[in-house]
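Hi Y.,

Following your request, here is the sequence exactly as I used it, all 150 residues.
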Amino acid sequence: MRKLLFLVLTAAATAALLTATGSAMTAGVRISTRKLPKLGTVLVNSKGRTLYMFVRDKHKKVTCVGSCAAAWPPVKLPKGAKAVAAGKAKAALLGSDRDPAGGRVVTYNKWPLYTYVGDTAPGQARGQALNLNGGLWYVLSPSGKVIRTK
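Below is the corresponding structure, written out as tokens. Let me know if you'd prefer a different format.
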């Protein structure tokens, strides 16, 4: 009887571990929204950090690599993961693009998404309307439109 109980418990523990591992593998990168002063509702990541688009990407592909990506880290999409919309973000506008540095970057309305190292806390948008690393950076609204306000 003990042996049978041990086998049942071992099987249950293994199934739980596989389920947890499987769900972690297919977990999503959460893109949500937050209202910011002077900018309105903008896209943020799961930590509440403001997300930006780079004009030089021309609404179609990742161009910020190397030292640019060190200042503006792209929102990476782990292999097997999906971008997930929350708040006022629209799932239909989420996608991904190949990153020349490897892997994939989350896109919104075809704009690759980035954070900014100058934003040190949730709710900051110090990268808004900056002309750095070869071009202008702006936040996006939940409708996918570029917000050019300073």
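Residues 28-147 form one domain.

Thanks again,
Q.
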